[in-house]
Specification:
287 residues; alpha+beta; D-Maltodextrin-Binding Protein, domain 2; seven-stranded mixed beta sheet; three-stranded mixed beta sheet; 8 helices; 27% helix; disordered N terminus
């Protein structure tokens, strides 16, 4: 989950995958304008109609800094840092993994998790990748292919069983050197229709849709105990920060101040979205 690898998040999140905010205007009015580089079609994070929860956070940041918000939209999540942040088109990524080495991070402003999603009426009980049910070949589980879910399906020898499903979701396009977006809503709907038994998705990318689902869904936070065969952990819980260019310590400090002052308002946006929130407990290097 580097940019939200979920995203990400998922990478992400997916993941996990989100907006970019800049304090230096493309036209040079640094004191009055706030440039936001956001996903054009990356709901529920952001879109060109400004319907995402990260659009709301960006507007909150702009208001707190008394700067007008402008948007520059991207279409390829892999290139946010290289083609936008590092080339001074935008100055801040609104959501990054708090361990992302490519950027200078603010303090984390929320922590969330991947979730298992099942139909309530199916009585499926899973909360960990150690659960034996996930290893059964006839148990169909959907994940996004650039997420920890893919890593764990490979670890339990289930990826090949679900390969046709992943190909279908990607419209049979190769992801080699190419960004192919799979809508998390589509995967969640496959749970609701019974096409698959379960899905594992980054909580922030699917919480809105779970609330809106006409089919009652069961949501379980994934335990953070997943490991590869060699014992290396595969994290399921992530802290989310804002990211700036590595030399932009002044902007980092301004944003840390906004996060501290507007924490309750930011949390209200996240809770309204239905995002599962966990306590921020760890300390990461912010360099």
């Amino acid at each position: 989950m580097q940019t939200f690898n979920q995203k990400f998040l998922r990478l992400a999140l997916s993941s996990l995958f989100s907006g970019v905010v800049g304090l230096t205007s493309l036209t040079g009015f640094a004191a009055t304008e706030l440039n936001v580089c956001a996903g054009e079609n990356e709901m529920p994070f952001s879109n060109s109609r400004l319907e995402g929860f990260e659009n709301r956070i960006a507007e909150l940041v702009g208001k707190a800094l008394n700067r007008k918000v402008n948007y520059v939209f991207w279409k390829d999540a892999r290139l946010i840092v290289r083609d936008n942040l590092d080339k001074n088109k935008c100055d801040l990524i609104i959501a990054v993994d708090s361990t992302d080495p490519r950027v200078l991070k603010t303090q984390p402003y929320y922590k969330s998790s991947y979730v298992f999603i099942t139909r309530e009426d199916r009585g499926i009980d899973i909360s960990s990748w150690n659960d034996e049910l996930l290893k059964e070949r006839n148990f169909r589980i959907g994940v996004l292919t650039d997420s920890p879910g893919k890593v764990m399906l490979l670890q339990i020898n289930r990826f090949d069983d679900m390969f046709d499903y992943f190909s279908e979701k990607q419209r049979y396009q190769s992801t080699r050197n190419k960004y192919v977006r799979v809508d998390p809503l589509e995967v969640m709907n496959d749970v609701g229709s019974g096409y698959i038994h379960a899905a594992m998705l980054w909580g922030p990318e699917v919480s809105r849709y779970i609330k809106q689902s006409p089919v009652p869904l069961k949501v379980e936070i994934v335990k953070d105990d997943a490991k590869k065969a060699n014992g290396q952990p595969v994290p399921m819980h992530y802290e989310v920060a804002m990211g700036v260019r590595k030399d932009d310590v002044e902007l980092q400090a301004e944003l840390d101040r906004v996060i501290a002052e507007k924490r309750d308002e930011i949390e209200a946006i996240l809770k309204n979205e239905g995002i599962p929130l966990l306590p921020i407990t760890t300390q990461h290097s912010r360099k």
